């Protein structure tokens, strides 16, 4: 397998995971900057034509990464939680059915709106990463699944339960 | 940084990159199976409630990975192409504005439709990975950017050029 290396870092208003909006109905509208390393600037050519980008990043401060020691190889299973209860529900779900940071590979994914580019700085809206998060890759957002074709499993059920009984949240 | 490890492997009809549909209008409707390693089965709990999944995988047979030697650390720059001409255009674009495999981190991303789950096997539609591709992560597809809000830069321009002059393709 390969060892990932940062292509840049996120500048975000969130300094601590507790500050990131979570749970049902959480909105991600924070402005941030994707600061790309100068050696990769050529790779940004024509990116400004896209309204939305997919950012792939590392959960470098997840329980998993912290326990393993950031900067070392993260190939152990310490800190991984295959079944966990997300902030948006009071029932446990499999890690691959959630966005939990306690994943076997600590890879995060966020879709952001590209507002403007200034050289190696991509000014974006919709960050939910912590300040200083290492960026692994950026891809153009090319197409969407129509919402009428989406089923959203436990998340839709949790939303429905909340609507029926707003006080039924732990 | 962390060293990624596979959580499973893709079973795909494509044995070679030349077989994967590419270019403007290419459709990804092939059926495949995401075979998850038994040690991670618990992490699939409740995944069957989602109609679509985001699969994050490794370009293990990209020029970059091959030249570096698959199985070794892929942290060099050999095989990375910061500016390249994609199959869908005859003009070069930055790697972060394309889905090229010659990326600094050889990470691929595909949205698939989940047809059914059989234990550790996720039967999906829409694979564009090669047979045997290592899977790094799976996330539920939760929401879409409405198509009327999307701008798709050089790709939209290439499509428009093709419509105006179908023979103007190299």
Please render the helix and strand layout as text.
Two copies of one chain form a homodimer.
Chain A: E1 8-11, E2 31-36, E3 52-58, H1 63-68, E4 83-84, E5 93-94, E6 107-118, E7 121-125, E8 134-140, H2 153-164
Antiparallel strand pairs in A: 1-2, 1-8, 2-7, 3-6, 3-8, 4-5, 6-7
Describe this structure in words.
2 copies of one chain form a homodimer. The first copy, chain A, has helices spanning 63-68, 153-164, and strands spanning 8-11, 31-36, 52-58, 83-84, 93-94, 107-118, 121-125, 134-140. By secondary structure, chain A is an alpha+beta fold. In chain A, strand 6 and strand 7 form a beta hairpin. Chain A is globular. Chain A starts with 7 loop residues before the first strand and ends in a 6-residue tail after the last helix. The interface between A and B is large, with 69 and 68 residues.
Helix-strand string of chain A: EEEHEEEEEH
Strand content of chain A: 25-35%
Q: Largest inter-chain interface?
A: A-B, 69 and 68 residues
Count of extended strands of chain A = 8
**Tally of helical runs of chain A:** 2
Q: Specify the overall morphology of chain A.
A: globular
Calculate Rg of chain A over CA atoms: 17 Å
What order do the strands of the largest sheet of chain A run in, or round the barrel if closed? 1-2-7-6-3-8
Q: What distance lies between the first and last C-alpha atoms of chain A, to the nearest angstrom? A: 41 Å
Question: Structural class of the secondary structure composition of chain A?
Answer: alpha+beta
């Amino acid at each position: 397998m390969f060892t990932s290396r940062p292509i840049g870092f996120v500048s975000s208003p969130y300094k601590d995971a507790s500050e990131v909006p979570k749970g049902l109905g959480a909105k991600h509208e924070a402005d941030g900057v994707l600061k790309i390393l100068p050696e990769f600037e050529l790779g940004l050519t024509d990116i400004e034509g896209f309204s939305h980008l997919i950012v792939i990043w590392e959960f470098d401060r997840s329980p998993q990464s912290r326990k393993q020691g950031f900067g070392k190889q993260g190939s152990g299973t310490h800190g991984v939680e295959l079944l966990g209860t997300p902030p948006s529900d009071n029932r446990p779900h499999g890690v691959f059915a959630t966005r939990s940071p306690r994943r076997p590979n600590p890879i995060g994914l966020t879709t952001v709106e590209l507002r403007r580019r200034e050289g190696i700085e991509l000014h974006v809206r919709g960050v939910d990463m912590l300040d200083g998060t290492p960026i692994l890759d950026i891809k153009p957002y090319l197409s969407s699944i129509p919402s009428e074709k989406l089923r959203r499993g436990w998340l839709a059920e949790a939303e429905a339960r909340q609507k029926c009984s707003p006080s039924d949240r732990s």
